[in-house]
């Protein structure tokens, strides 16, 4: 119950959001909440989509300053489509993550943005990458970010299992987002989820009243 | 370099950045805590028991500034002894919690400690009270300390009404284990105290015996 300073005035800490990505058997789920707030006091949008498509089977979630993140993604998208034309094949997920990483690292003094990148490619299958604030790039099976993520570290550690089925993973992601939205006042709204597999991409939106409820609600 | 600067831990406040939890079951309560005490970046005590007895069947869990928390616990221990002699029987958990709350509220600007009070009495059975910043509220379970942020999601999802003593103990151990893995200020061993009408049982679970729920 200690107060944690998670607003944007503190450098290096993510702002009002909860994002997550997790690998399951055959694909990956990436998702976020949908609230945009100003100073933690006013909800400026209840239904903003923080899951951005950067290529056919590659999606990104942003954390940190929304303005910085959008600028970086815009630049990354154009790099990536050019790269894909040159290679004459869809880009690898790690290529997308690397493009983001280069931009974050080279401009680390000016930017305050981090990303989760998730997708599927024919070389390595489903993958999740994290580009942190300073430009570190690592690959993980499951990862969470944003101010709301603090509250679900324990839940994700306990409940994530490798090689879940698609349904189990979707349920896990929905539960995790719902729990974070329940405790973090700058995360909320609906849960946007994207399921990426070899076959294609599916958007799942879980409205507020359909989110799972837990015992004390 | 001439002259070494004094070690950081000498000048930093000693905090029990911590994870504490208490949960009620039908017939008693279970309290749990980690054992790390830090001063800045150093761990100054890795085996501190943060579950402090206020009376035979009433314990409190300490978090925040180590000095403040211990002082409050000692003062309330004394006040409770006097009170229980005056009424001629064992004190109620609510009385203990109220005494803690009175101190927390009166000195809320000077103190920075949060105590969770839990115990068993004849009238109401097992009870858990949170006393953050001078508030007094009874809850089915309470978590506190810096490590608690990381496990809010887990306890929200896993808590069920009507768990029995064994399930509560397992719940507490799992929660502590997850929090200790993620919070830099929590760690060491896990202390557990189970209080019911038959008595008080203290238990220590060493680091390597804690459940490993984290499989990455």
UniProtKB/TrEMBL annotation, chain A:
Its main location: nucleus. The keyword Hydrolase applies. It is an enzyme of class 3 (hydrolase). It is found in: Nucleus. Keywords: Cytoplasm, Hydrolase, Protease, Proteasome, Threonine protease. One of its GO terms (molecular function) is threonine-type endopeptidase activity. The active site is at 17 (nucleophile). It catalyses: Cleavage of peptide bonds with very broad specificity. GO terms for cellular component: cytoplasm; nucleus; proteasome core complex, beta-subunit complex. GO terms for biological process: proteolysis involved in protein catabolic process. Its EC number is 3.4.25.1. It holds the Pfam family Proteasome. The 26S proteasome consists of a 20S proteasome core and two 19S regulatory subunits. The 20S proteasome core is composed of 28 subunits that are arranged in four stacked rings, resulting in a barrel-shaped structure. The two end rings are each formed by seven alpha subunits, and the two central rings are each formed by seven beta subunits. The catalytic chamber with the active sites is on the inside of the barrel. PANTHER family: ATP-DEPENDENT PROTEASE SUBUNIT HSLV (PTHR32194:SF0), METALLOPROTEASE TLDD (PTHR32194). The proteasome is a multicatalytic proteinase complex which is characterized by its ability to cleave peptides with Arg, Phe, Tyr, Leu, and Glu adjacent to the leaving group at neutral or slightly basic pH. The proteasome has an ATP-dependent proteolytic activity. This subunit is involved in antigen processing to generate class I binding peptides. This is proteasome endopeptidase complex.
Automatic annotation (TrEMBL), chain B:
It is found in: Cytoplasm; Nucleus. GO terms for molecular function: threonine-type endopeptidase activity. GO terms for cellular component: cytoplasm; nucleus; proteasome core complex. The active site is at residue 18. It comes from the Eukaryota. It catalyses: Cleavage of peptide bonds with very broad specificity. One of its GO terms (biological process) is proteolysis involved in protein catabolic process. Keywords: Cytoplasm, Hydrolase, Immunity, Nucleus, Protease, Proteasome, Threonine protease, Zymogen. Signal peptide: none annotated. This is Proteasome subunit beta. The lineage of its organism: Eukaryota, Metazoa, Chordata, Craniata, Vertebrata.
